[in-house]
Amino acid sequence: MALPNPSADVLTPGSVQDKRGARRPRRWSLNSAAPYLLLAPSLLFLAVFFAWPMVQALILSVQTPEGEFTTQYLQRMVSDVNFSDAIRNTLLLIITVIPIQFVLAVIMGLALQAKPKSASFFLYLWTIPLGVSDLAAGIVWLAIFGDRGFLNSVLTGLGLMNTPFAWLSYEHPLSLLAAVVIAEVWRATSIVMVIVVAGLQLIPPDYTEAAEVFGATTWQRLWHVTLPMLRPSLQVALILRTILAFQVFAVVVALAGTRMPVLASEAYNWYGGNHNPNVAAAYALLILIFSLVTTGLYLRALRTRDEELGQ
Amino acid sequence: MAEIRIDSVRKVFGKFTALKDVSLTIHDREFMVLLGPSGCGKTTLLRCIAGLEYPERGRILIGGRDVTDEPPRRRQIAMVFQSYAVFPHLTVYDNIAFGLRMQKTPADTLKRRVDRAAELMQIGHLAERYPAQLSGGQRQRVAVARALVMEPAVLLMDEPLSNLDALLRLQARAELKRLLQEVQTTTVYVTHDQVEAMSMGDRIAVMQAGEIAQVDVPTQVYDDPMNTFVGGFIGSPPMNFLKGMVQGSNGASAITVGGHALNVPVPAKLTGQRDVLLGIRAESIEAIKEPQPGSVPARVLVIEPLGSHLLLTVQVGDELAKVATRTDFPVAPDDTVYLQPEAGKIRLYDAQSKTLVTRDA
Amino acid sequence: MTTAEMPLNIEPAQRSRRRTLSRIGLYAGIVVLTLFMIVPIYLIAVAAFSPRDAIYTYPKSVIPNQFSAETMQFFVGSRGVLDATRNSVIVGVLALLLSMLIGAPAGYALARFIFPGRDSFKMLILTTRAFPIVILSIPLAVNFIQWGLYDTLWGVALAHTALALPVTILVSSSIFMGVSRELEEAALTLGCNRLQAFMRVALPLALPGLAASAIFTFVLSWNEVFAATILTLRNRTLPALVMSQLNDSPLYFRFAGGFFLVFPALIFIFIIRKYLLGMWGQVVK
């Protein structure tokens, strides 16, 4: 036979999933090799195209092309005129967008749980933004918020304004921010919603029914039964979403051009515009650090809650 | 020849020893039942015979050939799984034909054998259906047909009836037994249902905690359980075990229960004084209203009218026992009745090792 | 509010009226949310399909009075657009194939085997989700220049595969776990070796889920902007093209481009909608 004949490493029901004990020598090599062989390509690929670039990013930001260690790129990044704006804008977006998204996603998930008619139809419609690229999302909302966009058209048509309002101009930073927030909420809420719906489906109805029998109101049921059971899904969703949020890019560029720098757009400009991969790498590194720190903070905060709840 | 020999097989999963040191011989064309509670190792043993598990130690021989290192497809076995494992993406026909196709059986032979197997299991009319369109009972038949069509040397069945509802299970049990009697293949059948085991097996191997407690024909396992575990597992209700003592020896001795001496001859083997457990089945105890020499008083706690007889739960000393009486036996809760064991039905067990010492007569 | 918690002193008629009211409220809320999700897409379609000068008129009418494919035609005819679209398709297919060929076996290994390192590997995969594509792209660009992969479709495809691989592994792992082990065991007792059991039983049953995962990878690749823009110069993918010309291009170009990017996604999400919940559930775990 062409292939060796690895026997199935199958488990009988109820047996302990533990490190396996010693086995007969003849089958050991065949049996144990199979999973590693299957994993090897993935490991290799990720090592080359993921792990190594990560390390390189670190190196790039602190090493000149000649090979000497330097902080000049980091300094250049920090002293750049857009630096503090980029950080501020990115953080602002995160602080506004994510809470709105989560609340909205939970509302949407619960709405579907109430089993209205054609729930699956609505589910499909609500997940459409999932397939929309962030660039397209930015453009879509540009058509709405632009100077001659649909929002202004509608408002003028309703007689609520005479001259178009420049929502996206740099003179109105607040409305610009609001526009970006709305666009991001529109684009990315579906992701969280899908996770919420999946999490809700895992909750056995028995718990809420029991709570109902014992006299809990809808609010109480939501707060004390449903949300706590949703917590694991929400936790991971929160971490993932925040990490992605630190990389917000195309939506901002599409709506705000250069008027609203964020970390990712700065990285992009330093690489593509200024042809300076080192400072770009420095920005990338900053994003990574932010991501890791917030993840750590999340895990800390959520873990403390667990202890408080006596789990 | 499809005799199966299991030789000192040991199987370990991590820290858990599923089979300690199991040896068993299953004769050609025998229907052997592996019976025991969950976790006793019966399914593991079956899977070792199948080749889905490989033992750490020991050998397995099928038809005289050492197959211990062989994969399932080289062992001439066919297996029916507890979940039936009928392929959802294939029709009933293709399911049954699967094994034959793997063997590259020529088309006309294949069709003939598949049709015959389907007819045998009375699912011929379902040939073009998909498993999702079938009921549980029908899927079970597909699984059996798929195994039988292979005309294997050994047929392995892992609790094939336990997923059927109670009424269906009864019918299916009788059908399966008749079928397998016709087919005459060596069969190893795993179940936790002792009624199934008694009804179907030529011999039963009762397993406990990775070891075989007793291998014997059903009547023997029922009448002469080797230890209290077997006695308590087989039979419904389980065998009663009452604390007793043997005092004196050789004719001038008596077996006492709760201080009352039984009117039962003491076997010569028992000498001296020792603690024993008296094993006796509910149907082998007669309950009488008036005390007699050799009878033991007991207080009636619960009366369960089972239609064909009454099942009494009585208290003897500080122990409980089950006694069967005729339906019109006049008894009410809290009554005192007197228990008289049937001669020849008492089994004496060593109080420490719980193993059978001797019968009473 | 359910019947159980309504105060008992409410008349039955009032009670059912309250229930109807809350039901109406539910549907109203759903409609509002749906409009929020759908209207922007409708609007970009309107913008993309109005005549060029209509884009500059103000105020725009929400209900288009003229339907014209002029803008779209202009967009499609613009320099580089057709090529970019073709590139996006190629990159998407490459990424899909690569991540499936590399990732599905790993998913199978995770699903079927218990072996030392299994949990570590799973942890590793999950943590890759934490690393931004932004970080990845810049050193990759530097590497690709050295390796001659810069500005090639293969380069972008490899970057996208790296992005999609962890998800593919996790999703295919859960798909294979959904295929009962006993089915493959039954195949083993019927004359198959491991590979045959996989090909004849596990794979056919896993195929729908794997296909959904593959489509998802394609959508991921189709939409990806940052890496695609950084890693290409002349052989742009569609998002890269639109991105690089974003602030220099006329409005109609952007709108048409936006619609062009959105439209296939609509179709793909429709195709795989049944599997979406399962897949994202996996990502969370």
Describe this structure in words.
The complex is a heterotrimer of chains A (311), B (361) and C (285). Chain A is mostly helical and 311 residues long. Chain A has twelve helices and no strands. In chain A, helix 3 runs antiparallel to helix 9 (218-245), helix 9 (218-245) runs antiparallel to helix 12 and helix 11 (263-273) runs antiparallel to helix 12 (277-308). The longest helix of chain A is centred in the first third of the chain and has 38 residues, at 25-62. Chain A is globular, with a radius of gyration of 25 Å. The N and C termini of chain A lie far apart (54 Å). Helices cover 23% and strands 34% of the residues of chain B. Chain B is built from eight helices and 21 strands. Chain B has helices at 42-50, 92-102, 107-120, 136-148, 166-183, 194-200, 218-223, 228-233; strands at residues 4-13, 16-26, 31-35, 57-62, 65-66, 77-80, 154-158, 186-191, 203-208, 211-216, 240-247, 254-257, 260-261, 274-280, 285-288, 296-305, 310-316, 319-325, 336-341, 347-350, 356-359. Chain B has a six-stranded mixed beta sheet with strand order 6-7-8-3-9-10, sandwiched between helices. In chain B, strands 13-12-11-14-20-21 form a six-stranded antiparallel beta sheet. In chain B, strands 15-19-16-17-18 form a five-stranded antiparallel beta sheet, with no helix packed on it. In chain B, strand 12 (254-257) and strand 13 form a beta hairpin. Chain C is mostly helical. In chain C, helix 1 (12-48) packs across helix 12 and helix 3 crosses helix 12. Classes of the chains: A mainly alpha (311), B alpha+beta (361), C mainly alpha (285).
